[in-house]
Amino acid sequence: MRKLSIAVIGFAALSMAAPAMAADMAVKAPPPAPVVAVYNWTGFYIGANGGWGQSHGCVDFLTPAGAVASGCADRSGGLVGGQIGYRWQTNQFVLGLEAQGDWAEIKNTRVSLIDPLISTTGKTDAIGLFTAQLGWAWNASLLYVKGGAAVTRNRFDIFNNVTGVGLASAGHTRWGGALGVGWEYGFTPNWTVGVEYDHLWMGRDNTGFAGVVTPNGSTLTGSGVTQDIDMVTVRVNYRFGGYGAARY
C-alpha cells in the first residue's frame, strides 16, 4: 500500500510539471515570407522596331508670277529600324534618353494642279528621333511620354507624265520636332516588348530650281513642301541588368 501511494504521488507530480516544461520550450519561428521581385527599369537598352508611317505633305511652286499651290497629299509605307537608350528609375518614375533610327518607304506620286501633264513624287526614306522620356512604372509595365528632335531624309521629283522624263529633283534632310506616347512590358528580367505612337512636325522646306518649264509653258523657279509624319511601331528591347531591389 505504501509503494502504491508513492507511485500515485510521483505520477501526479510529473503531470503538474509537464505543462510547465512545455511552456518553457522554444516555439519554432514561422518561415519568412517570400521576397517578391520588383522589375527595375534602370539601365542601358538596345532594340529593334518596325511598323507603319504616314506623311501628310503640301506642295506649292514658285513661279515668276508668285507662289502657286500644287495640292496636298498623304503617303504611307513601312518602317524598320532600331533604338538605343538609357533609363533611370526612382520609385515609380522612370526618366530616359533615347536615339532611334528607321529606314522608311513612305512614298506618293500625284498629278500636279498647276499642270496635269506633270506629276510630283515625294518620298521619305529615313527617320531619326532624339528624345527624352518620362514614364510611370507598375512593376514590369511602363507607360511613358516622349519628346524631342526629329530628322528626316526626303526626295522630291517632278517629271513629265507623257514622256516620263524628269524635270527637276531635290534631295534634302530636314529637322523638326517629335512628340509620342508608348507602353512597354518586361516579359523577362531583360527583354521587353511594347508599342509606340509618334507625331513629327517637320515644318516647311524650300528648294530652288534653275527655271523648269512644264509642258503647258509654266516656268517653275522653286518649290515649298510642308510635312507632318505619324508613326506607329512595335518595339523589342534588351536591357542590360535584371530585377532589382524593391523600390515601391
Question: What would your notes on this structure say?
Answer:
This protein is mostly beta strands. Helices cover 9% and strands 69% of the residues. The chain is built from one helix and eight strands. Strands 1-2-3-4-5-6-7-8 form an eight-stranded antiparallel β-barrel. Residues 6-14 have low confidence and may be disordered.
Total count of helical runs of at least 4 residues: 1
Estimate the helix proportion, in percent: under 10%
Strand content: over 45%
Major sheet size, sense and barrel closure: 8 strands, antiparallel, barrel
Q: Quick check: average pLDDT?
A: 84
Q: Cα-atom Rg, whole angstroms?
A: 35 Å
End-to-end separation in angstroms reads 75 Å
Widest beta sheet: strand line-up: 1-2-3-4-5-6-7-8
The computed structural class is mainly beta
